[in-house]
Specification:
Blueprint: H1 2-6, E1 43-44, E2 59-64, E3 74-76, E4 79-90, E5 100-102, E6 105-107, E7 112-113, E8 117-127, E9 133-142, E10 148-149, E11 160-161, E12 165-169, E13 175-179, E14 184-188, E15 205-207, E16 210-215, E17 224-229, E18 235-240, E19 251-254, E20 259-263, E21 268-272, E22 279-284, E23 295-297, E24 300-305, E25 311-315, E26 321-322, E27 329-333, E28 344-346, E29 349-353, E30 359-363, E31 369-374, E32 388-390, E33 393-397, E34 402-407, E35 414-419, E36 429-431, E37 434-438, E38 442-447, H2 449-459
Parallel strand pairs: 1-32, 22-26
Antiparallel strand pairs: 2-38, 3-4, 4-8, 5-6, 7-10, 8-9, 11-12, 12-13, 13-14, 15-16, 16-17, 17-18, 19-20, 20-21, 21-22, 23-24, 24-25, 25-27, 28-29, 29-30, 30-31, 32-33, 33-34, 34-35, 36-37, 37-38
Length: 460
Amino acid sequence: MKRALMTLVFAIIVCSISDRMPATSASGGSNWPQWRGPEGQGISAEKNLPTEWSETKNVLWKSAIPGRGFSQPIIWGNRIFLTTDIDGGPAPADYKKPSHLIAGKEFNHPEWTGTDVTHTFKVLCMDRDSGKILWEKTAYEGTVYDYRHKRGNYAAPTPVTDGKLVFTYFGSEGIYCYDFNGKLIWKKSMGQIGTMGMGVGTSPILHENLVILQCDEDMGKNSFIVAMDKKTGKEAWRVARPVQSSWTTPVIVKTPQRTEMITSGNEFLISYDPATGKELWRADGLKSHAIATPVVGNGVVILSSGYPSKVIVAVRPGGSGKIDGTENVLWKYNKGTSYVPSPILYGDYVYLMSDAGILTCLNAKTGEVIYEGGRVPIATKFYGASPVAFDGKILLTSDDGDTFVIKAGPKHEVLASNSVGEPVRTSIAIADGKLFIRGDKHLFCVTNKSNVAVNTKKAD
């Protein structure tokens, strides 16, 4: 475990789904309200979306974003929300840095950073059609409790919205609820949540009147999952978890029988009743860093890890107690996954991606290998963005800012390669005929020219 943590790269990654488990794609519409979109799965049902762009081609607008952040933009109507971290001056001389222990011994990582300066965590609201910043609010300003990995970012969790309120999360520095006008409705501290100095990655999700956070910390002594009333921040329930640090976001799965909230983890995979926090079932965990968000479809939930072990487990919801060795564990696989990005389940297939962008396609129901070794045309790295899919296509975005359009289905084919000209570590968001790509310094809005004309007319 120590060896694994010594080389750990911060998880960026980073929900509710429809009344039944999706068979092919997420529900359509003009909103992208949370991490990985309408159902937390990275899938859009929209058509006529752009598949070709550059720094200028098919770019409706490009807006500079202050500071840095890896949170995915979320969109509701004509509003975009995202978070950012702005470095300040030196930390006060009396600031006490956190201590992390493994087997009773202090653990130090050579690539920790972030505690030597103060930070300003901001929430931005932008106009979807122009890119203009409508308002920005300072959620937190001061020192941070924990380190982050030098590749990471404190503004990594993606906000979530119900169309009236926006919930933003910054780990130990708190959760903040705003209305669409930027008024702070409530804020709440989750306490000191150690992440072995790698930074927070999990994003908040919504279920009915609740906002839910998975707070797995350090070696698991104080890990918990908590649900709060979304209007007041008052805790509805809190449950301890026997799971050490994770950077994954849970998913809400609605089946004809019941609703489950399924969580990933090193020691255990656990399903809860999201209304009460009652544990429904558990299985042996990934025995590895839980970073990827579970993917859902075809009656299957697939949980995965990429380091130090590549583990993929497919389960059927509806079990009870310990489900290892039962028919609720459908299949397992042990290669093809990446460190940080989540896989994607689109149609009949689940697509795994390595850190080099090499795709493996499996039958989601059976685990049968459909193809392996699907490559992108240039050598690059994929340590940040998770895939998104629409209209029979899968988009893979590299750290260099190149997005490769892959044909979905049983045969690998690269349809196009595009770049915004700056590094990208954040997953693409999709809404209203547009792709929203957050680069290192800018947010890009990409759309087909026909969509630009239509939207210009609407604006008039």
